Amino acid sequence: MVTPMLNTQDQARIAQAVAAAEANTAGEIYCVLSPRASDYREVPLAWATLCALALPPLALLLGFRPRGLEALFGGWTIGQDGATGGTILSALLVYILIQAVVLVTVLLLVSLPAVRRLATPPGLKAERVRRAAMDQFLAHGLHLTKDRTGVLIFAALEERWAEVIADEGLHAAVPPQVWIEVVDRLTEGLRRGDAAGGFLAAVDRAGQVLRQHAPPRGDNPNELSNRIVLLDPERR
Q1: Positive or negative CA dihedral for 196, 202, 205, 208?
Q2: pTM score, two decimals?
Q3: Which strand (E) or helix (H) includes residue 154?
Q4: Virtual CA dihedral for 152, 153, 159, 161, nearest 10 degrees?
Q5: Which of 79, 179, 183, 199 is deepest in the core (most CB within 10 A)?
């Protein structure tokens, strides 16, 4: 079951946490929560095609032969050699029909949201979440902050996957392990069904990093909104 989106109180708490984390830093933290990173429309078709194509060679490997389908046509023994071609053609047509049935059945089965989530390879989920996070990073202008110290904290609920993207002003200065800690705090909240708690913990850790590596300037304007962005589930 997918964790519900954040309510108004949760959103306010996260906005306050972002404001507090940014109070002593020139960095900017931006949070985005998406119901899913992708609809994975190709996954049901891929599984259906694989199963349909794998059936005939698997059947042959197990000792099944087209002549074994003769019973479907009455079980008569063909006496003339000329009729053999017709029997083989009938068997091949049955094979094609079986492939079509398997294709449609698997396609419908894997199209069910719960099954599709299980059937989607983890690597594909990670790649789609990463791409969705980068799209949000660019769309909201995190690469345009004055000191290039923007940090995006992104989570996809259906995948239960998170990404943190730091702009070039922080990327070289902060060890990758530190951002992994931010991700771990967020995903821990997602796993226990507490998306708000996950974001609060991630924002707090990101704020600690920014205070260390991006100290505040004399003028320290708030360049980005502190409110978390909730993406529309129909957008993907």
Answers
A1: negative
A2: 0.77
A3: strand 150-156
A4: 110
A5: 199
pLDDT on residue 33: 96
φ, ψ at 216 (rounded to 5°): -70, 150
The set of long-range contacts for 41-46, using a CB threshold of 8 Å and a minimum separation of 24, is 43/110, 43/116, 43/119, 43/120, 43/124, 44/106, 44/107, 44/108, 44/109, 44/110, 44/111, 44/116, 44/119, 45/107
CB 199 within 8 A of CB 31: yes
Query: For 153-162, what is each residue's pLDDT tens digit?
Result: 999 998 889 9
Please report how many Cα atoms fall inside a 13 Å half-sphere around the Cα of residue 21, on the Cβ side: 27
d(CA 41, CA 119): 12
Both structure tokens of 111: 């199209």
Q: How far apart are CA 62 and CA 110, in angstroms?
A: 26
Which residue, chain included where needed, has tokens 């110290």?
A: 149
Q: What's the average model confidence in pLDDT over 205-211? A: 94
Four-point Cα dihedral 177, 181, 184, 189, nearest 10: -170
Q: Which two tokens stand for residue 225?
A: 């909104």
The H or E element containing residue 54 is: helix 42-61
Close Cβ partners of 173 (under 8 Å, ≥ 6 residues apart): 213
Q: What is the Cα–Cα distance from 1 to 18, expressed in whole angstroms?
A: 28
Task: For the chain, list the domains and their CATH numbers.
Answer: 8-40+121-235 (3.10.310.50), 42-118 (no CATH)
